[in-house]
Amino acid sequence: MIDKLTKFAKREWASLTFSKKLNVHLPHPIVSFTFDDAPVSAFEHGADILAKYGFGGTFYISLSLMNGPEADTRFTSTHLRKALARNNELGCHTYSHIDLAQTKTQEGIADIKRNQETLHKLLPGLEFKNFSYPFGAQTRPIKKFASEQFRTARGIEEGLNVGTTDACNLKTVKLYEGKHTLDYISLKISEAQKSNAWLIFYTHDVTDKYSVWGCSPAYFESAVQECAQRGITVSTINEALNLIESTRHES
Ligand SMILES: [Zn+2]
Questions:
Q1: Which of 22, 142, 150, 187 has its CA 20 to 30 A from that of 114?
Q2: Is the residue at 240 inside a domain?
């Protein structure tokens, strides 16, 4: 409980005292599907479902998990290459999947840099452009570092991104099957349509035996299919940002 309160206080302090303004004034809504960590099932079922509709998503990866001891998160470099070939984006999620609110700032920064260096060795020339905080944990100095290192950083606070937003604490809606009904997910898509918002979904595993942080392929596909049927633009975080910035220049 104390840990939770400390984490909450650090995140609130970071939110109040530091932000990177991003104006989201779109002529139409955008939905992004994102995966954290990311489990093998996200690379397999999640990416397959997105590809079926001609879409790509953003995989925020911790490269310490690659070829690691846990079967469900033991993705390989083949998964990464295949994801990139199918118009997905690789985002940064620290190397060791550490809680940045419980880590010394310099160690946190070194761990984030290690993820980038490891990616360089694997896929030379590829940069992580966007970040998500493991556990949503933020501190003011880490948030400031993320703002300089990345175009955006996604948190875990629920909401739509519209109007004046904080690019270093992007809001999100969980695709956790045990938490939200598909009716609720539909409602969020409708809200994004009404306000021309940028709606960022996030999940972890996409498998029939889903964890409390994940969902089944059928649930995931329902959300993707609904966006497709409504003609909503679905894009990676990086492409969405390009659209947001180009709209800003035109207006
Ligand atoms: Zn994570």
A1: 22
A2: yes
For residues 231-238, average pLDDT: 98
Count of domains for the chain: 1
**Ligand 1 centroid to residue 33 C-alpha, Å:** 15
Distance 196 CA to ligand 1 centre (A): 28
CATH number, residue 128: 3.20.20.370
CA–centroid distance, 51 to ligand 1, in Å, is: 23
The string of pLDDT tens digits covering residues 108-161 is: 999 999 999 999 999 999 999 999 999 999 999 999 999 999 999 999 999 999
Range with the poorest average pLDDT among 65-74, 81-90, 235-244: 65-74
Q: How far is the CA of 188 from the centre of ligand 1 (A)?
A: 23
Ligand 1: distance of its center to the CA of 132 in Å?
8
pLDDT in tens, 21-37: 999 999 999 999 999 99
Task: Say which DSSP state 100 is in.
Answer: G
With beta carbons less than 8 A apart as the criterion, state whether 230 and 193 touch: yes
- Answer yes or no: is 31 within a domain: yes
Predicted local distance difference test score (pLDDT) of residue 12: 73
Whole-structure pTM value: 0.94
Q: Are 224 and 51 in contact (CB under 8 A)?
A: no
Query: Is 143 domain-assigned?
Result: no
- Kindly give the interhelix angle for 105-122 and 140-149, rounded to the nearest 10 degrees: 30
Domain of residue 56, residue span: 20-100+110-136+149-250
